[in-house]
Write a structure and sequence with these properties.
2 domains
Length: about 110
């Protein structure tokens, strides 16, 4: 075991206080939102040099991407609940093909 892995404390979501565990998970999540926002601002700055129509296109596409992101995130949360229940019930055969894998395969199938 490496020195960094030996010094790392494992998070126990069942027995540890919930506020510390939530903070531990919220920090990287908040950081990713800030990085995404900065990326979007820099993107808009460079696109603004192309004109008003380009900024309007970015604004419209941001809304479409946000809608798709929320749709997929909602589906991921829902399937996470199903997978968690199957794991908790001990139904390990039911975990072999979670529903989100089926959706991913269907969405990535080439259309003609």
């Amino acid at each position: 075991m490496s020195a960094s892995a030996a010094g790392r404390r494992r998070v126990d979501l069942i027995n540890d206080p919930i506020d510390g565990s939530l903070r531990l998970f919220a920090i990287p999540l908040a950081f990713s939102f800030v990085v995404n926002m900065v990326y979007s601002l820099i993107d808009r700055y460079y696109v603004s040099r192309l004109g008003d129509a380009a900024i309007a296109a970015i604004g419209t596409s941001d809304q479409v991407v946000f809608f798709l992101f929320t749709l997929v995130s909602g589906f991921a949360v829902g399937t996470g609940i199903i997978v968690s229940r199957r794991f908790g019930e001990g139904d390990h055969k039911g975990l072999l093909v979670p529903p989100h894998r089926l959706l991913s395969a269907w969405l990535s199938w080439p259309r003609r």
